[in-house]
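Re: your question from the hallway

Yes, I did run it. Sequences:
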Amino acid sequence: MKFRILAYLFFFVGIADLFIKIFYGNIFSDLTEDYYEIANPILVFTPVLFFSIGGIFLKESKVSLTLENFGTSRIKYYSPQFICLSVVVLIFLFFTFNAQMNMENRGIDFGFGFLTQEASFDMQFSLMDYDGQDPYWWAYVVALLNTLLVAVLGIIFCTIIGVIVGIARLSPNFLIRNSAAWYVEFFRNIPLLLQIFFWYYAALRALPLPQDASPLFGVTYLTIKGYYMPAFIWNNLNIFLYSILAAIIAIIFIRYYANKLRDNEGKQIPVFYISLIILIILPAFTFLAGGVSLNFEIPVLKQLSATSFIYDGGIAVPPELIALTLALSLYTATFVAECVRAGIQGISKGQKEAAASLGLTPNQVLKLVIMPQALRIIIPPTTNQYLNLTKNSSLAAAIAYPDLVLVFAGTALMQTGRAIEIVSITMLTYLSISLAIAALMNWYNKLIEIKEK
Amino acid sequence: MSKFTFLKSDRSNIQLVLITGTFLITISILDVFLNSFFRLNLISFLPSKVSFLTPFIIGMIGLNLIRIEFSGNRFLDTLNKNINTSNFNAALTLLIIFVIFKAIPPSLSWMILDANISGDTKEACTGTGACWTYIKVWFRRFMYGMYPNEQHWRINTAFLLVIGLGTFGLFATEKMKKFLALYYVVIYPIIAFLIIYYLISGGYFGLEWIETGAWGGLSLTFIVSFFCLIFCFPLGMILALGRRSNLPAVRYISIGYIEFWRGVPLITVLFMSSVMFPMFLPEDFFMDKLVRVIIAITLFEGAYCAEVIRGGLQSLPRGQYDAAKSLGMGYWKMHIFVILPQALKLVIPGICNTFLALVKDTPLIFVVGLAELAGMLALAKTNPKWLGFAMEGYIFAAIIFWIICYAMSKYSYNLEEKYKTDR
Amino acid sequence: MFKLIKQFTSFVAMVAVLFAFTTETMAAKKSKTLKNTQKKGFVRCGVSQGLPGFSNADASGNWTGVDVDVCRAVAAAVLGDANKVKFTPLSAKERFTALTSGEIDVLSRNTTWTLSRDADIGLTFVGVNFYDGQGFMVRKSSGITSTSQFKDGISACTNIGTTTELNMRDFFNSKGISYEPVAFEKADEVVAAYDAGRCDTYTTDKSGLAAQRTKMSNPDEHIVLPETISKEPLGPVVRQGDSVWEDIVRWSLNTMIEAEEYGITSANADSMKTSDNPAIKRLVGAEGELGAAFGLDNEWSLRIIKQVGNYGESYKRNIADPGILPDRGPNELWTKGGILYVPPAR
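Structure:
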């Protein structure tokens, strides 16, 4: 009991220390004033020290139990931890001290004030308005959006291809099974960087010049300068989006109702077809009655000079994005295919046989018995692969796609010279994305795990 | 579509449908075959759109005809069950066969038939196919980078020695098997490092000193992969043990390390090593670029190795731990003599996979300026005397990497199968 | 407490430096870089990854170019042999960090001298060895003969992280033209993209344009447009904080230029020892004690001129004779209509 009081006392001291440093220690204003002594280790580590001492006292009862279980003494319990901690702290101190000495000698400052400076470079492709006069932090946000765009596109395509190939791997058809196997073996064993180089430097460079390109589907053009598509021009887009939202809510309600009906009375209603119909009819209705209209802006050939043409109007998808998405999807799809295959193969045959003996049709067996169980096995490693895809999208630095690494840790770093700050921000960004997805997956796992008694 | 047949085939008219069906299938495949290989168009009298679909339709009809459920003919039955179970399946089969036939002749002619391999200069590539002369001339550069030609024997001997010592574990006698873990974790890294340092880097014993900037090509890929693997293995083991430890400080430090390095992409780690590392070291202490890159990759892969080894440690039954403790063994004794030898045997396939991932990740060091195979490719393709051969270079690199990675993945798969049946 | 330790250490260091100052003689100045270079036996020079005329390696690994000659001049002055240089090819991204981290001691990589680079990142520019400007290159077949003919939607290839990227933006913005920047990291990739037709124009320093044109598949197909859109003074860079080394590099470059001004070439340098002009005699080390100011012997400038040549010889050998830029333009002596004017060596 005494220990608990001591623990709470230390916690309080730690929190007070932290507060005082944050609010009264002018830390934040120093951050923008390029004041490098912010990295003063004592400043940073005292709250941590207080918290850890408090934690030790709090767990004192559990510590006694551990000691009894493992037959060690307090000294043997605390000394290795103390040694480890001090080694880690010493390493950090060493690095920080050297960094400060070096920066002082060279006259370089440490601080995040450069983020508000004008960027003065343009980006080839951005989802939001970006001009060279915007500050560096806006360049960071736009570049991050570019990265997320590649990640989302890659995830969509790799899931589609991966699921198809994974199911094909289990097909009884000899040809299909082997083609899928060779696809997986081929694309998995070639390094991703080489695949990106191949697609960008060899394949996409062989595309025709804009004036020589013949249209695909009549209105889109695949050229060396990019893929030109018609742009959608919406009128009253928000009404359309509301209708889609309403359709989704309706579908959720219908599914819930259908589940209840199935549980109570054993009747099945064709939920899939009903949802499809609602999803199509409701938005289409807004076209007729809601005042939503859609126009297309078709790309038109424009001559810039005697030999150079581009397509004006419409959306231009840069070839860098195409190459990156293609390479990433094809590469990650092989891993997703393996996950899907492992998932479906992991369901014991007894499940299929039992379901068949109950009189379910093959489609119903797949939908009601196999897929729910298989998803449990498939989803965790697949989420891991999505994470890998997001991290691999940083390879855009090797081709000229303006994603986070190329714009921020490339151009911005070269123009401002702030190596430590910029590289740390980039690494922290990727780290947060990874941790967020990992946390999400852990939550999903806990949700669907089989609760054994 | 699944219920659409237009001639009921069953055992009664098996002769008729078999002959007609096979005839139709053969015609359709032959048509595509002749079209692509010999550019003969048998049905050119039909308009182009129809002639494109004709082989497909004829083949579908043929397959439909021979789809008999239980014909009694074993060959026919296996064929039907395999590729002809439904119309959809038949369509897919035909499409795959057509795609194969349409894709092979152009690639074959480009790669082999029209290609050039003789000669020494760009003028020797006269054909329309691939210019393998380019690969032949640059082969030594691709393999060894800018290393001087006369000194290549040093790299070869170093690799042979390192691989030989690595496979030492296979030939160990029973008595020495106890020390295998110690050998691989402590002794082997040191010896391998010394071999590479003295042989390849040189400067002692009369060997010329070659700076690390001149190392390159595939040999650099392997040097980096080897070094990183043999150093990240001990690191991974320590981290895995730390993560499973009961001491909270040690456990949280290990978890923090592992989650940090697994959450960042390798390219940012490499940027950090080339741009930030120099700031963190004292002013006069200068580390070679290659050393910095190897340290960065080792720290990075150590986290992945730790997860693999932790998987192995977790799969050991608790009985081993309990039995060791009941014999009075302490933490370290228990791990060195009981747990680790068993766990390490289990994780060998996982380590092979990590090595595979390492080899596939090494081309990234090209982005920070070290010219391994991808870097030598980029250098070669912009050489003014050899412009325009990017495709051959990439295909060559792809083939080399594919052979190496495929062999290793097959090997680790076999190992996994072998150890699965072992328990 | 940590702060106290640091303060105490800096106090002790200050006292030590003061002590060193009071006991130093006029000849001995301390320069860590100079000491390290003499100990290592070679000058560590950062150059480009292959720019004909400025720093380019041939098949056997010999480097030539005007930037290379600056480093060789420093080696001749400091170590006595112009060949004692280790060249490190660097991309635009790593060039500054390689210098600040200590991997190289001199960066001679046609780097533009700008305010932010001089003041902000711990570097010092020691002079200009090539006055240049940024220009555009287009294909002859496009029919464009001037930048005023650029239209909206034009795509321009360049290197990331260079002044070129920023200047390009300023130029297009001032003209109100919307453009698509395609920026690669390595110069070779930029050239390849422009050559393949990915972009309509390639922009960098005009000397770079002329040099890279020789590496294209069909050099005669491309022209450099006449307009110059920015000032690009290219020169060598050293780390901030070592002023003796700074002076050595600065005055090695100045020696080469001043030697041409007085007509001293590598061929007649020895004979100039008996010249009547005291300025010439000082340059060839026959008079005065100029080398002592850096801690070098008196033949330092003579060695530079004999082993590397004067500026004109270097230019002719590397840029004019291979046909890259036969016309020296502003890179001519001030007495002959150019703007090369260096302080006198006395």
